[in-house]
Amino acid sequence: MKAKLQNKSVTLMFPLYKDKKTVRKMIINSLKILKKVTKKYEIIAVDDGCPEKSGEIVKEFSKKNKKIKVFFHKKNIGYGAAIKTGFKKSKCDCIFAIDGDGEYDVNILPELLKKLEKSDLVITRRYKKKYNTWRHIVSWTYNAVLRFLFNTPYRDISSGSRLVSKKLIKKIEIDTNSPFLGAELTIKANHKGYRVSEHGIFYYPTGFRSGSSVSFMNIILTIRDMMNLYFKL
């Protein structure tokens, strides 16, 4: 199994918005785990109009290591748009997309790679969500509605880490620029008959951000994109 994993090239990519306090640690931890699992890898960060200029920190790293790359959006377009840029720029066999705030552990990568041997997409399910009451309500309702509308079994469809084959990304068109991206990718992959698996993880809230994905505007955008996909399918 280890030999098979070593033969895969891996892109580890993460979006940046308000992640200045975590970006250095993300890069250092990402390099450590990538060197353990493969010789062919790259790190991609996407600065989505970050007001803290987090991408400039990545740019300094990239000057010393050509395997580290950063791309900039001139203005904030959205979480989904940043992930799509990372997908597009990736040159490897598979892409580990993870949030840049440090809430998800990059060291889960070897386990996800093993699952990808028999899957096209591996999504992660948080064992326990350490949210406040409002976020618990939003998360539970969101996942329940998605299971009802799209007849999917997934319990945590939009967690902030997933591993996907580059071949699948080339075959599925993603429309959303909102946090609905994780759900859209999974639902479309499932709808087209690709192999989707779940993997349980622990996660570590940083406290640096107040949950931008559940802001009022992002909730509205997510509902819009969810209904658009429902009628499209």
Structure description:
With 233 residues, the chain is an alpha/beta fold. It has a single domain, classed as Alpha-Beta Complex (Spore Coat Polysaccharide Biosynthesis Protein SpsA, Chain A). The chain has helices at residues 2-7, 23-37, 54-64, 79-89, 109-116, 133-150, 166-171, 181-191, 216-232, and strands at residues 10-16, 41-48, 68-73, 94-98, 121-126, 161-165, 196-201. It has a seven-stranded mixed β-sheet with strand order 3-2-1-4-6-5-7, with helices on both faces. The model has no long low-confidence stretch (mean pLDDT 90).
In short:
This protein is an alpha/beta fold.
CATH class: Alpha Beta
Could you state the oligomeric state of the chains shown? single chain
CATH architecture: Alpha-Beta Complex
Query: Helix and strand succession?
Result: HEHEHEHEHEHEHHEH
- Strand fraction equals 15-25%
Sheet of most strands: 7 strands, mixed
Describe the strand arrangement of the main beta sheet, using strand numbers: 3-2-1-4-6-5-7
User: Percent of residues in helical segments?
Assistant: 40-55%
Question: What is the assigned CATH homologous superfamily?
Answer: Spore Coat Polysaccharide Biosynthesis Protein SpsA, Chain A
Overall pLDDT level: 90
Q: Could you give the distance between the termini?
A: 37 Å
| Mass-distribution shape | globular
Number of strands: 7
